[in-house]
Amino acid sequence: MERITIVGILIKNRIKEANKTQTLHSEYGHIIRTRIRIHEVSEAVSSQTESLILTLGG
Question: Which tens digit of pLDDT belongs to each residue from 15-46?
Fold first, then answer.
């Protein structure tokens, strides 16, 4: 039976941490099955906080 792990990550400053986040996605891309990014967006502003939901398997 294959093992799937679900991980939730909260990033408080998504613009500042974008390079680190992308590096981790690239480094562990071979086990990331699904990546869902959630952040609030409106006409006036885009939120600095971002939630990531990852499913991992491999």
Answer: 899 999 999 999 999 999 999 999 888 777 77
Looking at residue 52, the DSSP 8-state letter turns out to be E
Question: Which range of residues forms the domain containing residue 25?
Answer: 4-57
Q: 4: which residues sit within 8 A by CB, 6+ positions away?
A: 33, 55, 56, 57
DSSP state of 41: B
> 32, 25 in Cβ contact below 8 A?
yes
* Confidence band of 9 (pLDDT split at 50, 70, 90): very high
pTM score over 0.85: no
Residue type, 41: V
- Work out how many domains the chain is built from and give that number: 1
